[in-house]
Amino acid sequence: MKPLEFKKKEKTLKLIDQTKLPLEITWVECKTYEDVAKAIKDMIVRGAPAIGISAAYGIAIGALAINTSSANIFFNELGIICKTIKNTRPTAVNLFWAVERIWEKAVSNKDKPISKIKDIILNEAILMEQEDTTINREIGRHGNPLIMEGWTILTHCNAGALATSDYGTALGVIRAAHESGKNIRVFADETRPYLQGARLTAWELMEYKIPVTLICDNMAGHFMKEGLINCVIVGADRIALNGDTANKIGTYSLSVLARENNIPFYVAAPVSTIDFSIESGDRIPIEERESEEITHIKGIQIAPRGVMVRNPAFDVTPNRYITAIITEKGVIYPPYDVNLPRLKL
Ligand code: MRU
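That is the input. Now the predicted structure with MRU docked in place:
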């Protein structure tokens, strides 16, 4: 299952519209970098790695359309494109990582003809997509031994194929365990307000024929206390050098509940989700989204008109609640402030 497809001949990016899943499977075609920026902002594409790859393709689409023979004008316009793409969503560091990677690749080839630089940018975006799938399979391979036969795993939000180029991070571990023949089950939090768990994770797992039970977010503690959950695995949007992890709102509460109930709590993420420039989670910017996501469900108002609303899309789980971080380079255990910096490429 792939949420994105770059059409080389048309120079467009096709994105599965994740706002409509699972009831409608429709694709949105992004013809300009502004289309890609809008698709990221509107969450047609979402999930940290998928946002990063889409950003890279967005820059490539924008670069291909720059019509100039002047290197100065080209890099000036490329800078504007990168800025627009960066201004879409603030929390997932993969977005900024992807933009920086493309920008640096272009700048390091600045003396080449512009047509060549355009090719280099596009090839880098294609490479990033290919690498991401390999990375997710590696995350699955490293995470699989942590999952025991017969376990039930709780997950939150969607860290599956839909959130990446393919295969998924947290769901990648679950898929690897399932594919290796382990009899496992998943409890999926619905993940209010955007319902990534109900709409995307439940759908994905059913497609893979992995037994899944959908629960409301506020039921997780109850099922942990009943002894029904053996471990929690979630994805990540940004991991600080000390292991503090930003992920979908509600992840922090789950981690505290997991500790209270002696349940291992794992984060599965690529190294590109680690922000090597920040020491702790205090510095992670948290996106606040529109109040309508809370006051309305599918366009129908459910809360009193004019009520005050807060809608942070992410929270930060302190490192002390995280049993281990599963990456493509292996499983990282505390002390994270010592072990995470070692992963810097
Ligand atoms: O707001 P979203 O849907 O982009 O948030 C996604 C998450 O929080 C995921 O858990 C995270 O990006 C990991 S995806 C592999």
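The CA atoms of residues 232 and 265 lie 5 Å apart.
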